[in-house]
Amino acid sequence: SQQGEEDPQALSIQEGENATMNCSYKTSINNLQWYRQNSGRGLVHLILIRSNEREKHSGRLRVTLDTSKKSSSLLITASRAADTASYFCATCGGYNAGNMLTFGGGTRLMVKP
Amino acid sequence: GAVVSQHPSRVICKSGTSVKIECRSLDFQATTMFWYRQFPKQSLMLMATSNEGSKATYEQGVEKDKFLINHASLTLSTLTVTSAHPEDSSFYICSARSGRLVSYNEQFFGPGTRLTVL
């Protein structure tokens, strides 16, 4: 079963706007990761945030993690049409959990030029 | 970054045939490989975890005899869908992890294999 729930399921914005996607999970985690998937393609790893971190940046990406609320958010600033894809969060329980990833339902982002 | 390939990228077969999908880590040794299944517009569901040289661990609800997994070397894992039926049509994605890479927790994903069973 899926660990995470993502919100919204679909998001449509204009180029240049910011896109925010949220992810909630249920059990304790070692880290949380965000992935991107273009239609019919494999996953691309975007960013990993550890359970003792609260915020992380990578280029136009900003990820936050609130372990007390068991939630994370992914912010894409100044979006581009090329950012159109599905975005998934995945929680990792760490070594004792076999380092398995459990994926959320995903957010389908469409950026209109 | 580490590269994982899958072959074939797309396969169409008749109902009742068996299909083998290969997952290779190209530039690192994968101590663990994972197989996922993804239905259209849905998330990835973990099917099984395989460690090199040992039997795969299947997730609840995944038939071991239906989805045969072999991880015979540190760079290759195969998933065989036996006696495929139309309901097995899906996007199959593998990922690989190496305990030796700096990004210990990171899984590197293959590009996926689209299976269509007629």
Largest sheet of chain B: 7 strands, mixed
Query: Can you give the mean pLDDT of chain B?
Result: 90
Cα Rg of chain B:
14 Å
Q: What's the total number of strands of chain B?
A: 11
Radius of gyration of chain A: 13 Å
Distance between the termini of chain A: 36 Å
Largest sheet of chain A: 6 strands, mixed
Question: Which protein chains are joined by the largest interface, and how many residues does each one contribute?
Answer: A-B, 25 and 28 residues
Secondary structural class of chain B: mainly beta
What report would you give on this structure?
The complex is a heterodimer of chains A (113) and B (118). With 113 residues, chain A is mainly beta. In chain A, 0% of the residues lie in helices and 55% in strands. Chain A has no helices and eleven strands. Chain A has strands spanning 5-7, 10-14, 19-24, 31-37, 43-50, 55-58, 61-66, 71-76, 85-92, 101-103, 107-112. In chain A, strands 2, 4, 5, 9, 10 and 11 form a six-stranded mixed sheet that branches. In chain A, strands 1-3-8-7-6 form a five-stranded antiparallel sheet, with no helix packed on it. The termini of chain A are far apart. The mean pLDDT of chain A is 91. The relative contact order of chain B is 0.33. Chain B has strands at residues 4-7, 10-13, 19-25, 32-38, 44-51, 57-58, 67-73, 76-81, 90-97, 108-109, 113-117. With 118 residues, chain B is an all-beta fold. Chain B starts with a strand and ends with a strand. In chain B, strands 2, 4, 5, 6, 9, 10 and 11 form a seven-stranded mixed sheet that branches. A four-stranded antiparallel sheet of chain B has the order 1-3-8-7, with no helix packed on it. The interface between A and B is medium-sized, with 25 and 28 residues.
